[in-house]
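Q: CDP-diacylglycerol--serine O-phosphatidyltransferase, please. Structure only.
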Amino acid sequence: MKFKKAIPNLFTLSNLFCGFLSVLLTAHGDTRNASILILIGMMLDSMDGRIARMLKAESEIGKELDSLADIVTFGVAPAILVYYVSFSQYGLIGMIIAGLFPLFGAFRLARFNVNARSSIYYFTGVPITAAGGLLTLVAILHRWIPDILISVSFMALCFLMVSKYKIPSLKNVPLPKYGTIVTALLGCLIFIIFKNQQQEMPYFIYIAVPLYIGFIGYRLKKRRDNGGKNHKS
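A: Structure for CDP-diacylglycerol--serine O-phosphatidyltransferase:
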């Protein structure tokens, strides 16, 4: 029973470890695999909550652990990635600007955690998972994006995370959720970019692709099973 309750937390900790490894790889100049690790972290983040509900193993510790993992993988890691590919040329100012993203992300997570009246129909502000994924996308495309546009996108995502804008949650709509959409978009772009440039694919992509295909297969099977139960009833 205790092991069953620990399974969702293992996925969350794996998400956190992906963020840590992404930071290390970025520091060593391997921004390609650093991006892939954030992608894998997004997959794991979209799985831990569903697994907890499936196993009936939801806990307060799991919720807090999820926020701690998110601030590393989708706050710190993307910010450092963008710093290395774009903001490093600005020296200390670039460091300070890059540091704003995890700060805004931490505030957004804290506000979400203490808001007992969170609606199932919308998010208040852009979720840090989606914001971190989009920032990673900007970092991947940095060679084709002017520096000023990278800076504007960076600050816009910071603002949108802590804004009061109502973002539809799509929880009751049979469509892919934001994490799935951004993950799939990132994966497709990474493949297209490296294929067109005839570069060797980042080695972490060979972990990400089977993981994501397995996850999508599981979700389709779960939806089909639920549809069959509803039809019988």
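A: Brief note, in case it's useful. The first strand starts at residue 122 and ends at 124.
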